[in-house]
């Protein structure tokens, strides 16, 4: 029986985000966010789904914390809805009902032995900031508003919250919000400039919020603050031809720098990667020396969200990313073409499940940034077409997905010395998958969207066992079970959005 033991004190958790689970969109004094507007715009979200009700976590949070405690969860990543605490985005009007909701939730978690890690911005920008101040293009207004919002959260919750994440996946906010328009606010017609401006402003939002925490709160509250970045692994497309192999390797490295280096280089080195400066010229905003200094070293650990892997080769083709459902003019900036291996399993998103790609990404981050505070994987998981309760009860595909990814993470730690300190499964519960509405299920808990009834999937019980033992048993009852529904999942069409 092979059992992989994880380092003592390893932080195991699950993750969610406010707009995806809370619902109660028009209750408790909550203001509107860009996702309320986007989801109600015809044609933007599959089947016109909105987060109005989501999984009603706002009302059912106690039941949800009970489910967490039942599975043995010790850490839980949640996000605060900016418009629920500040309906207009600004601190001139604090919604005390919203503050009370998060106070109650945090207290309930702590009472059940669960430590919260809190994301400040997981994409639900107050709508007023979009309509009046151009959203993520809003420059100083946006940055000051975010710093003030962050300060309020540190003031009100920082006595109990000791781990903060400023932004979730700014790559998605910039590329999907301003590059191809697949996510709120859904812009794309000036993608060649706005994408980079949005990202630039987000980086400055992060840096200023961290500055507020470090100068006003960290000494007294003794917590940590970081940013969380998403990246798929980019594997050079295999080829027999040595010249082509070298070009593919260079293209894969460039893709990693455009995806992850875009944000991680400023946070760790104070500036964008050289290859981005060269290829984008004046379209890439520049940091002043003061901004650069504020950014450099602005993360107490490396927050990483990871989902899949793709082969990469160079290509100057317009719409180079189209094959992966990532169509859009913006892709010619990177100059790569993505593809998949027929042997790879696909999740219900059409994303490639390639566990070794996760290990290679962890190793790449370790080699380039050697991040102080280590890496905390703040999201990893898969969508499975388990909308039927019987399939969810077995959940072989998801268990095998996690088994593979955890085994490779273990290898990164033990064989390659990568400093990984935590792992959060996405997601605790089935929820609103953005432009895919409720059609994609990422949860460890199944939800009946009519009755809001919850049920732990087999993966919740299995993952609970990993948490309790701090180890991964490679030969348990799920091992090598033909993954129920795998055939359907493996041949799922490539996602048409994102
Ligand atoms: C992340 N991509 O989104 C988010 O943080 C979650 O809110 C979301 O539910 C989860 O992953 C699953 O999608 C992503 O296109 C969306 O590469 C798109 C991409 C990556 C992450």
TrEMBL record:
Keyword presence, Hydrolase: yes
UniProt EC number: 3.2.1.21
Superkingdom in the source lineage: Eukaryota
InterPro entries: GH, GH_1_N_CS, Glyco_hydro_1
Biological process, per Gene Ontology: carbohydrate catabolic process
Cross-referenced Gene3D superfamilies: Glycosidases
Keywords: Glycosidase, Hydrolase
A GO MF label: beta-glucosidase activity
Tagged with keyword Hydrolase: yes
First-tier enzyme category under EC: hydrolase
Catalytic activity annotation: Hydrolysis of terminal, non-reducing beta-D-glucosyl residues with release of beta-D-glucose
Family: Belongs to the glycosyl hydrolase 1 family.
Protein name: beta-glucosidase
Native source species: Achlya hypogyna
Classification of source organism: Eukaryota, Sar, Stramenopiles, Oomycota, Saprolegniomycetes
